[in-house]
Amino acid sequence: MYDPTHRAHLPAETITATQLGCYSTSVVTALSVQDSNSVIDVIPISSDTIDAQARFILEDIKIRAFKIGAVFGIETLDAIAGIAADYHDLPLISTFGKHFYNHVEVEEPSGGRLYTEMLTDAYLDILAPLSYIAVVDSHYAQQWTSDDFDIHTTDDLIRHVLDLGAEYCLVLNERYGSSMRHRLIQCTDREDYFAHDPHIQTPAEFADMVASALACLLANGENTIDAVNLSLTVALKQIEHQIQLGMGKSQPDRLAYYET
C-alpha cells in the first residue's frame, strides 16, 4: 500500500531496505488517501495490474525474498499464491497486523462487514501456507478472528498459521507478566524470546516494519534467529526516535538506525 506521508508501508520501507544494504523492488496494492493524522480512504489497485507488475519485475530482476503487506482483493491473493508457487524456494514474510479493510468503499448492505470477513479468511487460507515467517502483532490479533477457521484468540491464530504450513510465527507485543516480549515459534515448537524495552510504545505499522526488515536480512543471507533479532532492533530504534512531519501524529524516524 502506498502511504503518501511515508509513515508506513511504501515508500517508507524502501528506506529501511537501503539502511540494511538491500536494494528493494515493490508492487503497490492500494493507494491510501490520508494525512499525517489518519487514513481517509483506501483505493485498491486491480489484481491484473498487480500480477502483471510483479511478473515483469520477477522476470527482469533476481529477487531473494518476498514481504507481503496489505492486500485488498481475493483475486490479488490468488495472484500472489501463483507467484509464490513459481518462486517457492524464496522466503515469504506475511504480516498479520492492523488491516485497513474498513477504509475500502464497497457496495454491500452490511457496510463492508462481509467484505472484511471474506478477505480476512482468504488471507488466512492463502497466505499462511506460503509463509516462511508469519508476523503476528498481538495488539491487532482480534482483527484476524474467523468463525470458519475457529480463530478466536491470538493462540488460535498462531496455531492456524503453523498448522497450515508456515515455518515460523513471530508474535509481537506478547504480554509476559508485567512486561512485554516478542516470541519466535518454529513449526517444530521450538521457541525463542526477544526482550522489549517497556518505554517504547509500538504503533500500528510495527508488524510491517519488522517484516520488511526481516525480508531484507534474509535476502542478505542472515540466519533466521539473527534476522529476527536485528529486525526488531531496527524497527524499535526507528519507533523510539519519532519525528513530527505534519500537524497530525508523530511517526517513526526511518533514518534513526542509520544515524545512530
From the structure above, extract its key features.
260 residues; alpha/beta; UDP-N-acetylmuramoyl-L-alanine:D-glutamate ligase; 6-stranded mixed β-sheet; two-stranded antiparallel sheet; 8 helices; globular; PM/HMP-P_kinase-1; phosphomethylpyrimidine kinase activity
Write the layout of secondary structure elements.
Blueprint: H1 9-19, E1 30-34, E2 39-44, H2 47-60, E3 66-68, H3 74-86, E4 92-96, H4 113-127, E5 133-137, H5 154-163, E6 168-176, E7 179-186, E8 191-195, H6 206-219, H7 224-240, E9 242-243, E10 251-252, H8 256-259
Parallel strand pairs: 3-4, 4-5, 5-6
Antiparallel strand pairs: 1-2, 6-7, 7-8, 9-10
Helix pairs in contact: 1-6, 2-3, 3-4, 6-7
Domain Pyridoxamine kinase/Phosphomethylpyrimidine kinase: 11-250
GO molecular function: hydroxymethylpyrimidine kinase activity; phosphomethylpyrimidine kinase activity
Protein name: Pyridoxamine kinase/Phosphomethylpyrimidine kinase domain-containing protein
